Structures are given as structure tokens and as C-alpha cells.
# Entry
Amino acid sequence: MASLQSSTIAGNLTGANYILDNSTDISEWYKLSHCICDGSAYSDCLGTGYDYLHVRTPLPTKIADGMGWNPYVLEVVGYHTYSAECFHDFKAIVNTNGYDDNFYGSAVRINRSGAGGLMTPASSPYVYESATTYGGKKRLCFAVRKISCCCTGYLWVRWWTNAGKRTDYSWATFHSNSGTAYW
Amino acid sequence: MANLVSTTINGSVTISGQMLGGTNSDQTPWYKISYTGSTTAYIHVRTPLPADTSYLGWNPSILEVYGFNGYSGDKVHDFKALLNVNGYNNDWYGSQIPMNDGYQSSPTAYRSSSTYGGVTRVCFSVRQDQNAEPGILFIRWWNNSGAWNNFAWAYTTSASTTGAY
# Structure
């Protein structure tokens, strides 16, 4: 891999994968699409999907992974569906107790999710730690509202500091009838 | 044009053109418009984003606008609008603004009534200070970032919230 000392680019710069600015330690936005169309009894395609979309991020949550007393900001923007029935635009402070490894990062401090077709709470964001491990790690997860139809929706997710953990583990999404816990 | 597979720049990188970011995130860069306010009530911006099924059909984008007009924050703009086109019949219903933290902004997103470069475009209007003071708008959208450089930008003023384009 080439390492440049510095560079001036006269034209445009495009990253086919991602571009990170290590000086700010902010992860790049990660885009997720969602539509649960598995054809089972609870499927958006059948109009029987659940009300909440749960996202499991690559971020670990434990002291052993460097997260104790290391608060950071989780930021989420997105929508579901065509008429902004659910519109998401929030920032949450995430933290793990450095003494006892307890997660207490469920503080959604800025919520500009607005009033979509479902009105408040059109977003209802909730941030939590996964109950079990994935890839050997407890993970940072969150839930937001969705509606039950196989309609387009996207979420963009990033966090401020700890950008290096962006690609450590895989992402996952699924729907649930609970707004507080799935993973 | 050089295409790097991967690189790390230990110092700084300066880009004279646009930083289009990682294509995985599907966001456009910010586009900046500097202008001087006029006595007309609204400034209208015509974006390069087509307002038809070529991009937006059942595939909404989020239009994000940030900016101000006037030395004292007389008008401050900070909104996100969801843009959508009916994928069956090409009808526009992308005027939803679910997030608006502006001050005397009065944003309106609409589709141009005429075509420009052969396509109707996503347009929006916001208030002006009406005192010939500096104004700056920063504009980007989320999803359909591939439409970023397809057409030229334009802006004008109007006494109405829609219909300038």
C-alpha cells in the first residue's frame, strides 16, 4: 500500500470504498437498506412486519475492547418510507462504565427526527447493548420505528471517535415488535 | 487518471475539485452557493437532481440544506426534505420536510414545472433577508448521489415559494 506524505488533487477524489479522516476520528457514513421480505408469517412483504428496525453495529461495548469511560457519539439519519412516515435524525451519547463494565449509553441527546406521517414518535430511537455476543463481542445496537410494508428505507450511521472500529465486525439488521431489545 | 487500490496519506490532502467520499455511503459532497440577498422574498435553487423516475421513482433521497442570509442570522436554514416520485405515474410528491431547525427559513421543496437539460429538476426555496446582505447555502443529498454532476446548478429569486423554475 502506498503511503503519501501529503497530496494536492487538482480534480475530484472518489473513494470506491471509504475515506477516513484520522485527524477527527469520525467514521464515514455507512448506508443500510431495510425491508424484511422473507415470506414468513411476519414479513413486510405480507404487510405483517413488525414496527421496529434493529441495527447491530460493528462497535463493541466492553472495557476489554477499549470502551470503558470512552463515551462517543452515535449519529443516525434515515427514513422509511416514501412520505417520511418515519424520519430519523438523532445523536446519542454512548458509554460503558469503566468500573463494572455496565452499559449506560442509552442517552439520545439530540433528536431532530421531526414529524412524519406517523407524527411523534415517528422515530423513537433507542440505543442498547446486545444481550449476547456476536463475533465474540457484545455490540452496540439501536432500534428505530418502521412501518409494515416492503417500501424503500435507508439508514445512514456513523460515530464520532472510535472510527477505527468501523470495519472490525459485520453489520446486521432485523425487525422486531419490541422497541428496546432484539439482538 | 491514477486509480489507487488503497492509500494512506500521513499528512494532509487538499482537493481542488470535489471530494465525493466513499461510494458506499451514497452521499453527495456539499455544494456551496454564495449570493447577496435582494428585496425579493425568496431565493430559489435548481439542483442537478432529476425529479422524475430516472432516479427518484420509489427511491427517495434526503435533500439537506444549511446556510444563512444576513449579517445577524436574519435567516438561518437547516432542513432535511424527503424527495420522492411515484414510480408508476411519475407524479411528484417529494415536498416533505420532516426536519427543520431553521430560523425564518420557510423552506419549500418542489419540482420544476419546466425541463432543464431535458428533465424536470428538484428545486427548493428559502427566505431572503431582503436587505442585500451576504448569504451562503450549502446543499447535498443522501441516496442517488450518482446524479450529482449530471446537470448545472442555478438560482434566482421570486416573490413566491414555488414556480420560479
Q: What stands out?
A: The CA atoms of residues 71 and 177 of chain A lie 29 Å apart. Chain A has one domain: 30-176.
